[in-house]
Amino acid sequence: MNFAGNSILITGASGFIGRSYVDRFLELGFTVCAQVNTGEIHARPNLHVIAEDLSVTKSGNSLVQEALARAGKLDYVINNAANQAILDPAAASRSEIELMMRINVDAPKEIIDEAAKSGVQVVLNISSVEALNPRAGHEIYGASKAALDVLTRSASRAHAPMRVLGLRLGLIGRDGIDQAWPEGVAAWKAATPLARYATAIEVVGVTEFLLSDANAWATGSTYDFDGGLGTSSW
Length: 234
Hints:
With 234 residues, the chain is α/β, with parallel strands linked by helices.
């Protein structure tokens, strides 16, 4: 599919996967609106960096409006931003839990609702394997992603014909991960049939398909991209 001339809003754009999204969609000819809270992205043609704190109530609404003002129109949205704090479910404070739910569920919902009124064709929510089987310390994060998966389904009905999809990611490798987290990488490889982690380039590739006309009959679905973890125990 030729994406040239389209526009996209990407949240969490200064993170590892977010930067890969920005780079690739600029290559494809998109006008890219990149939301950042912390971190920086270097300026390039057709890139609009929007500083917006998604922890603030209704920030998702204003973010979509700002993206429309910058790009003139908005065709696609990727809800990629996430709070991934490790929280002990027995000790986490109410404010810590509310912050995680705010960024991982409430803000995406605001963005989806506003996108549906703004001519957006597809919203893609980035979920996690932790939504199905969270590791110790990730229980609340997993609950927030499970809620996002349900939101994907319900929003697809509420906002048709805009399509709402999800992508449930497993471990995505980055430079130095084998040295920084050897026990986790080994456990991941042992638990997954394909016995490896994915690259950001692979995540971007599957995202291109999900947004494309080749996938135009799908909405409400969350796709597993996890090396087969769903068939195993983690």
